[in-house]
């Protein structure tokens, strides 16, 4: 009994995803909300036709705007560490499901009227924020969990230390080499970029890696080398191959971390753009009332 309770607690504490939080509580809340909104829309008595300007239109618009402001506050909530029923996990769970319900709420608010105006701009930005949020959830769900939390930092430090140690060994092993061969080693030691710029980290492309180029150049050098030179070159080659494996591992981790961060570069700025367009929308409808 006690063990069952303990294992349940363990399950709900760390490993339960925010998507399943409290038995999909916020999915249920959101579904009920959407059903209520659809029923209100279907049974309304709108004159001349359903739009943002009817009583229900105003109600849905206000609900949508309040939801958007609340969803935007997650940025502040993320930075305040607290526990209990209003834990960050509960917030994120509510954020995801109520955020998705906006598709129904805002679309029915518009009465399906769209045009080239600031109102539809607000609507389009809202869809962009929601779509980027969905991408983020997909990343969190599919990318290895260990890399998205603090343990990722520790492994990253260990990986960098390992590459550094291999560099030292390569440097050591290269001491007896002739000048031309030493230049190949220098290519690996001095020109290898572990992470690289934003796009490189995002796409995980490292086909032109200096260490790989150095390994390629070692092949013909090894074919010509004799005696001590050949022994040293073989040692260097083995170390460079180990370095290539270590680099591949570190870069995979860097790539995944970049993916986990990249969607936020869309989600957060488009949230600000949405808030600005929404303000313009609300002010303009009241000005032209
Ligand atoms: C306090 C909140 C809101 C109020 C008071 C409000 C008010 C209105 C009004 C009065 C209209 C009708 C305008 C007309 O028929 O000319 C309208 C239309 C519209 N609203 Fe809102 N709205 C609110 C929130 C939102 C939100 C959250 C969105 C989406 C992000 C949105 C997107 C639209 C769109 C796309 C239209 C249709 C524009 C068109 O006919 O071309 N509104 N809104
Ligand atoms: C108009 C609706 C939405 C707005 C305004 C909004 C806004 C925000 C903001 C401001 C943050 C905090 C980002 C930060 O400071 O790091 C955030 C985080 C997040 N949002 Fe949204 N969001 C919306 C809808 C959605 C939707 C529909 C989803 C999922 C389908 C979603 C998924 C997420 C996730 C997963 C996070 C990160 C939570 C974490 O880091 O633990 N968002 N959102």
Q: What number is the mean pLDDT?
A: 89
According to DSSP, the number of beta strands is: 0
What coarse outline follows from CA principal-axis ratios?
elongated
Q: Kindly estimate the percentage of residues that lie in beta strands according to DSSP.
A: under 5%
List of distinct ligands in this structure:
protoporphyrin IX containing FE
For the sheet with most strands, the description reads: none
Q: Name the helicity range.
A: over 70%
- Domains (count): 2
Helix and strand succession?
HHHHHHHHHHH
Unreliable residue runs: 1-15
Q: What is the straight-line distance between the termini?
A: 64 Å
Put simply, the count of helices is 11
Radius of gyration, CA atoms, in whole angstroms: 28 Å
The helix-and-strand class reads: mainly alpha
What is this entry, summarized?
The chain has 289 residues and is mostly helical. The chain contains eleven helices and no strands. The protein folds into two domains: 2-144 and 265-287, no CATH class; 151-260.
Could you characterize what this model shows?
It is a single chain. The chain is an all-alpha fold. It has two domains: 166 residues, no CATH class; 110 residues. It is 78% helix and 0% strand. It contains eleven helices and no strands. Helix 2 packs parallel to helix 5, helix 8 runs antiparallel to helix 10 and helix 10 packs antiparallel against helix 11. It is elongated. The relative contact order is 0.10. Bound molecules: protoporphyrin IX containing FE (HEM) (2 copies). One protoporphyrin IX containing FE binds next to helix 3, helix 5, helix 6 and helix 11.
